[in-house]
């Protein structure tokens, strides 16, 4: 259990208001650090926009256009006109939080199940509220009482549809958390081979393997953010266009 | 065999089965994607997008197994 120390919350400044615990932990510090980096990057490079972009603005345009074209427009189609800022924001926020793992001795915010649960539950409520407001109560209920199937089959189909709707945020949060947790755990396990064998010959391949997995981890961070946002886009498209 | 060693054995079996299943599924996915790209090179962009998603979904199986195995190891008494 000792080498899991990196994944435990440490309270830095205890704040308690009644029964609510609002303490500043290392999770809070790293989330605010990531959000500040993202905010400063977006803020300073979008101040003076020029038609011919300079280095920073060009980078910003590449990232945002990649997310807009490949995630929002390729999955949602015409609905992307309204929804692309939300999808791009989710993609950028999750990927910058995942990428905090490349700093040594850091705490990856998305490896905490509560943080991922916050994002997934937010997505869940956005899906339900959009469905009710855009398609009406009747259109929303069509997701559970599917028209076109015989009415006696609703006894079996409706519970399945309700369970699959409730399972969506659960699968989103579990996939993100488990991937980030497992990736960083593997690095620690490989490096602790050195302390187990206490041998210089073991250290050389172990360090190179850990380095390779660090690079792999950067790829995984971005792919997980990509998957989270593409699944969000798919769920929103499904609820906007009921069958 | 006491309960501790049974717990460790269960963790080993879980990660072995999970890794095998996800390896086979990743192999099937990439084989079919490569076939599709070879037959229709102009569709490679679309295929690549869904290839990445499908691989990450299949890989998640192994990671669920890893988390389950770790929970078993650290809570076994």
Low-confidence stretches of chain B: none
Q: Give the oligomer, counting copies of the same chain as homo and different chains as hetero.
A: heterodimer
Count the strands of chain B?
0
Largest interface: A-B, 16 and 13 residues
Q: Which range does the strand content of chain B fall in?
A: under 5%
Structural class of chain B: mainly alpha
Total DSSP helices of chain A: 6
Estimate percent helicity of chain A.
over 70%
**Biggest sheet of chain B, open or closed, and with what strands and sense?**
none
Counting structural domains of chain A, the number is 1
Q: Gyration radius of chain B, to the nearest Å?
A: 18 Å
What fraction strand of chain A? under 5%
Looking at the overall shape, the CATH architecture of chain B is Up-down Bundle
Give the mean pLDDT of chain B: 87
Q: How much is the radius of gyration of chain A in Å?
A: 22 Å
Number of strands of chain A: 4
């Amino acid at each position: 259990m000792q080498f899991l120390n990196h994944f435990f919350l440490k309270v830095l400044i205890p704040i308690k208001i009644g029964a609510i615990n609002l303490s500043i932990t290392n999770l809070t510090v790293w989330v605010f650090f990531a959000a500040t980096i993202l905010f400063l990057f977006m803020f300073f490079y979008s101040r003076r926009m020029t038609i011919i972009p300079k280095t920073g603005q060009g980078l910003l345009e590449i990232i945002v256009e990649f997310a807009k074209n490949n995630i929002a427009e390729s999955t949602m189609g015409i609905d992307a006109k309204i929804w692309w800022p939300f999808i791009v924001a989710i993609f950028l926020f999750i990927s910058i939080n995942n990428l905090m793992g490349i700093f040594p001795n850091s705490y990856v915010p998305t490896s905490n199940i509560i943080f991922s649960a916050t994002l997934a539950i937010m997505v869940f409520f956005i899906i339900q509220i959009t469905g009710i407001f855009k398609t009406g109560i009747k259109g929303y209920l069509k997701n559970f009482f599917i028209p076109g199937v015989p009415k006696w089959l609703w006894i079996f189909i409706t519970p399945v549809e309700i369970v699959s709707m409730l399972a969506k945020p659960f699968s989103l949060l579990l996939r993100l958390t488990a991937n980030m947790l497992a990736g960083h755990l593997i690095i620690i396990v490989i490096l602790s081979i050195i302390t187990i064998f206490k041998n210089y010959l073991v250290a050389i391949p172990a360090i190179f393997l850990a380095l390779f997995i660090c690079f792999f981890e950067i790829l995984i961070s971005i792919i997980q953010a990509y998957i989270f946002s593409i699944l969000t886009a798919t769920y929103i498209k499904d609820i906007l266009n009921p069958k | 065999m006491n309960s501790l060693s049974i717990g460790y054995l269960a963790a080993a079996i879980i990660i072995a089965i999970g890794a095998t299943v996800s390896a086979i599924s990743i192999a099937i996915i990439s084989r079919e994607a490569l076939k599709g790209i070879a037959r229709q090179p102009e569709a490679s962009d679309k295929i690549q997008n869904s290839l990445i998603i499908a691989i990450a979904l299949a890989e998640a199986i192994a990671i669920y197994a890893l988390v389950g195995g770790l929970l078993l190891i650290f809570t076994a008494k």
